[in-house]
Structures are given as C-alpha cells and as structure tokens.
C-alpha cells in the first residue's frame, strides 16, 4: 500500500490460483509475439516423479491488468505425459506489459492441484 495516495499495489508474482499436494509443472515457458499471441511450451514429465501423474492436466491463467479492469483468462495446456505447444491469440488491445501468466497442475479427476507458479513472459 502506498500510504501517500492510499493505492493498493498488487504483487502479481505472489498471486496463487491453486493449492494442493501435486508437484507444480516445471519447465513451462511462455513467449509473447508482436501478433498479440502467447506461445506456451510444456515439456512432457516423467511418471516417476513423486507428486506427478502423466494424466495431470497443466493449466494456465493469463491475468490482464489494464487500467480500467482486470481479467483472468483460464487455459488448458495439455497433460504432463504429452507435453507440447499451444498458441493463444489475444485481444489486440492487450499489451505485454499488462499481462501476467501463471501455471499449475490439476489431477485428472479435479480433486487435487499444485501451487501456482508465476511465469516470466519472454
């Protein structure tokens, strides 16, 4: 909180959209293109890692923090076992400096999740 203006300054890197016992998805990357798209890369994970199943769903949340509003856009990136690439086209008005991207894993049956990781947009 900025005490002079009484403005709340969110710490976007610390936001959590999920919590649970699953291992967070490692190695997920996101790149912004000038065509207003986000390209996600999800590596396939080993089934032998404790807290991971090949069927765990890897999810992302894109938080758009424009001056007049904040919008959360949920995405499904695939499963740990398959990995892969996904490109998501964005609205033309959304600029890279107003985007925050987060990822987490969710069990296939939706009963458990991992902590949320904040991703650096390349």
Name the helix and strand elements from N-terminus to C-terminus, one letter apiece.
Answer: EEEEEEE
User: Total number of helical segments?
Assistant: 0
Shape: globular
Beta-strand residue percentage: 35-45%
Adjacency order of strands in the biggest sheet: 4-3-6-7
Secondary structure: helix percent? under 10%
Biggest beta sheet attributes: 4 strands, antiparallel
Protein model, in words:
It is a single chain. The protein has 122 residues and is an all-beta fold. Helix content is 0%, strand content 39%. The protein contains no helices and seven strands. The strands form two sheets. The chain has a four-stranded antiparallel beta sheet, with no helix packed on it. A three-stranded antiparallel beta sheet has the order 1-2-5, with no helix packed on it. A hairpin with a 3-residue loop joins strand 1 and strand 2 (37-42). The two termini are 29 Å apart. The model has no long low-confidence stretch (mean pLDDT 89).
What tags apply to this protein structure?
122 residues, mainly beta, 4-stranded antiparallel sheet, 3-stranded antiparallel sheet, 39% strand
Short description:
The chain is mostly beta strands. The protein contains no helices and 7 strands.
């Amino acid at each position: 909180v900025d005490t002079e203006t009484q403005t709340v300054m969110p710490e976007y890197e610390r936001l959590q959209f999920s919590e649970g016992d699953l291992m967070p998805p490692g190695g997920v990357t996101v790149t912004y293109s000038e065509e207003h798209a986000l390209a996600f890369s999800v590596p396939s994970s080993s089934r032998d890692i404790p807290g991971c199943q090949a069927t765990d769903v890897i999810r992302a949340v894109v938080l758009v923090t424009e001056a007049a509003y904040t919008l959360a856009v949920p995405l499904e990136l695939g499963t740990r076992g398959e990995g892969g690439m996904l490109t998501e086209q964005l609205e033309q008005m959304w600029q890279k400096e107003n985007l925050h991207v987060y990822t987490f894993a969710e069990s296939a049956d939706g009963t458990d999740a991992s902590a949320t990781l904040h991703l650096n947009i390349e």
